[in-house]
Amino acid sequence: MEKPQVGRFNTQEDHLLQINDLSKSYSGVRVLSGISFSLPAGSVMGLIGENGAGKSTLIKCINGVTAPDGGQIIFDGNSYSGMTIKKALELGIVTIPQEFNLSDHLSVRDNIYMGCERKRMGIFLDHRKMRQGAEALLESLGCSIDPDALVSSLNVAQKQMVEIARGLNHKCRLFIMDEPTTVLNKSETEKLFQVIRRLQKENVSVLYVSHKLYEIAEICDSFTVLRDGEYITTAKTKDFSTKEMANLMVGRELKDIYPPKMPLPSPDAEELLRLQDLSLASLVKNISFSLAKGEILGIAGLGGAGRTELAEGIYGIRKIVSGKMFFKGKELLPASPEDAVKAGIAYIPEDRQKSGTIQQFHLSWNMSLISLMEKYCSWGFIRKEKEKKSAENYISLFSIKAPDGNIKMNELSGGNQQKGVIAKSLDTDPELFIFDEPTRGIDIKSRSEIYFFIRTLAEKGTSCIIISSDLEEVIGLCPKVLVMREGKIAGILEQEKINEKEIMYLATGIK
Fold first, then answer.
1. Pairwise CA distance, residues 47 & 55, whole Å
2. How far apart are CA 508 and CA 502, in angstroms?
3. Residues 479-511 pLDDT 10s
């Protein structure tokens, strides 16, 4: 079949959403330039592009979070030069944001019904009905989260499910999903796809943003590509392979995204880390393994298996209640992240917005947060020129799309924020680097850059632990994978035995 040419995508179907010549700039930097495309009613369209391509800005223009500088949004036949959040919700435009927008101190139920609370007698909150409604919504997603639980007690995957449930609680005509599966496992993702297919049957349109191109191919009827703030094409997914989609995103032929796997360490390799029957309260039980200098170790498992908790124990965030930890041949019991950093351990958290950055700080300030006193202070004063120079080096090293280090963190795309978080930890010169969901919300080109960076770190002798819900990532990058289930090690796989079937068997205990 002849493939469609790059250009406008025309269809005779009714359009729910039309974008005409939309443009937007921040501080004189053009972010969107004359974007035009349309989304048919009852259709699922993928929106793809590299980090900084303009996807998030486009979404914010559609849902009223920000106003475009020019152009037109036509929704259900009515034209809007600028949308407001209130008007978008009234029209049925609902968004699941890439970064969580939940109130940690409120319950799951209260978050789901925030802004659309059920009342009795027109005055009092009807907690019983909201609890029942929240329970039903979560059940439709195949998860058993307690509606009365505080959001602060949930893991990242559970928070994502609450965000999705909150979106489903609105009367919806256009559902915008921005990277909804980055922390979901295969089963949770399939539940979400069932919901999307149900919405489509109800004539709801879905704009689905994801860097997982195999998901775009599976769930989307069509896809639209943005590159550097410009519209590239819209086409039918059935006519393009995921590799061809990736090539459209980057504007050139994309090579293999994974570097060659590191060999397993020799039996006499120098040991960097050893855990001996390590336990953390009721979350992690009797973990034992060793990590050689320069080794890359993957940790896989379902949500709630204890992967993140184990990392937080090694990094001093959680208390080790029994067992021992040895680092560089000496026993180490880090009581805080400060202890871990001083020892030579770095940790990239899975929730970068909450735990990895200060959103209102400049990029350069975020990069020097941990190492400020050690590297950039003299006689009580910050050496700003040295800090600035270091930020410029990291911006270049990681190809961060930013004019300079003075841009605020919350003005960067999610992927560029993640690169800044990695730079912050790299600046401490670690000997052990723990990456928790390192490519969450990152485009395929940037993911490849990070994979090759991890390989380079290992070649230089830095040991790396990769915690990931993306099995393709674990399989493609790690020569050894530790699989956890219910807080324990279910098994360890090496080289050719690392495959999806074996990992899922160990993670679930089900053949």
1. 7
2. 10
3. 999 999 999 999 999 998 999 889 988 988 776
